[in-house]
Amino acid sequence: MDDTLAQNQRLKAAIHFTTGQICQTIAADCGSEFSRQTIAAIAETTYRQCDIFAKDLESFARHAKRSTINVDDVKLVSRRSTALSTYIQQKSEELASAHQEQKEKRKKSSAKRKHQETEDNED
């Protein structure tokens, strides 16, 4: 139990640090500042939302009788936010396209190797 608590504290600290960095960047771009309380509130909200997402993802996979979370689970969890859902759909299509291209390259190179091996064996 102590390990889980320590891990959660490290995760919260990392989220708080990253939130602070993002807020500093935005403040520099906009010429404004964020109070420490605001940064802490954003960090806590982010942590809680990520926790909700993680639990939802686990539930979706478990409901489908899987132990692995897949792209469809992520798409389902993002359904409440149109912008997030659109972004995830776009990235999913990009990844699928890249995966298909790699698959075709492997298939071509495999066929080329087999052809060369056949020619070498004939000589």
TrEMBL record:
SUPFAM superfamilies: Histone-fold
The organism's place on the tree of life at top rank: Eukaryota
Biased segments, Basic residues type: 105-115
Cellular component terms per the entry's GO annotation: FANCM-MHF complex
Stored InterPro entries: CENP-S/Mhf1, Histone-fold
Keyword tags: DNA damage, DNA repair, DNA-binding
MF-aspect GO terms: chromatin binding; DNA binding; protein heterodimerization activity
Residue ranges of the region described as Disordered: 92-123
GO annotation, biological process: DNA repair; replication fork processing; resolution of meiotic recombination intermediates
PANTHER family xref list: CENTROMERE PROTEIN S (PTHR22980:SF0), CORTISTATIN (PTHR22980)
Family in the record: Belongs to the TAF9 family. CENP-S/MHF1 subfamily.
Protein name as annotated: Centromere protein S
